[in-house]
Amino acid sequence: MLYFITGNKNKFSEAKAILGEVEQIEMDLPEIQGLDAHEIIRAKLLEALHHHDGEFLIEDTSLYFDCLNGLPGPLIKWFLERLGNAGLAKLTDISGDNRAEAKTVVGYAKNHEELFFFEGSVRGKIIPPRGETTFGWDPIFLPDGYDKTFAEMSRDEKNATSMRRQALNKLKKFLESAG
Amino acid sequence: MLYFITGNKNKFSEAKAILGEVEQIEMDLPEIQGLDAHEIIRAKLLEALHHHDGEFLIEDTSLYFDCLNGLPGPLIKWFLERLGNAGLAKLTDISGDNRAEAKTVVGYAKNHEELFFFEGSVRGKIIPPRGETTFGWDPIFLPDGYDKTFAEMSRDEKNATSMRRQALNKLKKFLESAG
Predict the structure, then answer these.
(1) The complex's ipTM?
(2) Whole-prediction pTM
(3) Torsions phi, psi for A119 (to 5 deg)
(4) Among A40, A48, A114, B140, which has the minimal tally of Cβ within 10 Å of its Cβ?
(5) DSSP labels for A35-94?
């Protein structure tokens, strides 16, 4: 059985729609400190395999600012806690470079020896917050080619643009080809 | 026996000079993610008590920028990795507020139930790097009332200013009064 380890129902629904055979599971896995989403996910997958039978998925979706040489990345939650969306937008504005990348890394553990990673990314700009403030940094990310922030899009619009969908589609192809 | 958990000989020498009865020990303790030095230290102390007999000290010395509402704090290592000292100085410069606090938190675990914390802090300014570049962010921190960065000071000068010494002196008084 394949389990997607997440507490987020929307993320699970999206993965289920793409992958089909997958179950949601919640596990409280320690998050190692760092900037490398692969390493953070790898540590969590190995921990999950210790505690539970099955195959596992974990994803990390983070925001990488050009003006901060890739920060905050997986540290985005702490930046949001201290600066908020308005503070983050101000920071990129004063830097003179508001370019950013929204990137998803999906890690898949078949077993302790076979771990695979799949990425999706969307380039865009950081702008002052617009739209619903319910989900993280969605109000300040304006993807290239769109005039709406993620927070102003419907769920379907956002999923169509989504770095998470790109990564999940790559995983789907991999699982199909692995048969 | 009281053990100071650190891989840094200079930090240990300073603690030994102040506290007297203390031994150095190196332990590879996982660092939880976060902005709260107390929580990070607490997790490490509890882990150390699981693996080794004795009483333990751990310290965290971090840099807190006013312009980032207290970031980077314990995340300073990742900021340094991505931006370097010159990048950090530029960041505070463009923000228009280069005020910062250098803060040490020392945690002392007598046992699982008795954990104590002692703090020391020094206010100052972030400036373009000056002096030896051997130790972290020392080249960009100019403490109030001095015309040298930490990196330009001799070891004795720096220790006399030190937020670490303040915290260790508080611990020393506590240990003496606890008898």
Answers:
(1) 0.86
(2) 0.89
(3) -120, 150
(4) A114
(5) S-HHHHHHHHHHHHHHHSSSEEEEEEEEEEEGGGTT-EETTHHHHHHHHHHHHHHHHHHH
